Amino acid sequence: MDFPASPPEDEPISVVPFPRLKDEALCGVPGKIVRAVEPCTEAHPAAVLAQYLARFGCAVGRTAHIRADNREHHARVNVLVVGRTSVGAKGTSDGVVSALFAGASRMPSEGKILWRVSDQTPLRRVAGLSSGEGLIEIIRDASGDDPNAKNYDPGVDDKRLLVVESEFTSTLSVMERQGSNLPRILREAWDGDDLSTLTRAPLRASSPHVTVVGHCTPGELRIRLREAQLTGGTMNRFIPIASRRTKLLPDGGNIPAEVIAEYGPTIGETLVKAAKLGQVVRTDDATAMWNTRYAELRKARPDGPVASMLARAAPQVLRISLAYALADGSSVIADDHLGAAFALWDYAESTAEWMFGAHVDSAEVENLVQYISGAAKTGRSRAEISSEHFKRNKPAVDIEAMLGELLRDGRIRQETDRSGPGRPTTRYLPC
What we know:
alpha/beta, Rossmann fold, Arc Repressor Mutant, subunit A, 2 domains, 5-stranded parallel sheet, two-stranded antiparallel ribbon, 16 helices, 13% strand, globular, disordered N terminus
């Protein structure tokens, strides 16, 4: 079918903007800490904030909880930090959070190490998930009846586990393997259900408290993410957080010792306090806010990857608000904690829109990049792309979707000449 070419003089493509973090998200102790480190790091505040809440909730354990839907929800917050390879500053944001918690572990209080919540061992951090069995093995239950027997395994008492996957697309590859039980195990771990296998030598991990933080690029995620992970419920157990470098700090962007000294004791003390809590409830004001805004979390969305990624909005905001309260040293969820959770979720929604604003064929996109790169100095117009590259066999809306994806990922740029009479002319050039 022969489609008409786009007009030779084009308006620039409107690209889904990079998300903006609302001030309401920076509330309480977490907000103070993020504001304190923000001038000292190239990391994006949203990436630091989300990973701080995730790590805090993991360290606290599963005693503190809020009840909803006839089950306990703990402060388990899985985070997916999404940013381009060269400017995403994903690892930088992880380094900031690690420095803060490492500082907390060095702050003595009553002769105890604060990081060792309730005298537990330090929170374990692992990477490189290769199977569901491997995850269960790390936090396995005891096996065997006789402690003196050769085959007796005492298991692991501390069920807290932080998984940080700096190459999350590799984890997606593992999930795609035929017969892989990793997606199921990750879903059950987020739910807090007992984990087990049905192999000849079965493994079991009761009362797990596993938090997963993944890092990936938007392009890789769109290419590698399969419908099974989206519709099957694995990915909607992650909170997507867009990340990019906010500034250039040639001297290294290290968190000053005085910032660590100021907030280290606070982190440790709130961890110890939160670990002693049981059921947490909302204040009356927070309950009123929840009732008023609940419909926002249950709103219907057009079918597609954005709707699939955000399908668990209500329990996600519930858990985020609990993490905010615990990290703020509060025994109740106040309206500012819930408001902050809604603000961070708004950022997650914008991230999903930013990631999946267009879902197009990756091979066609790569061919289009090569075509645009062939005219590196002058670039290509949409008319040229339609007539020369696609031979007028591609609808204009599909061409715009592909160009929009490349613009979002920073692989091409658009320049618009408005100096002459008549309509402006836009051309697309390689970055």
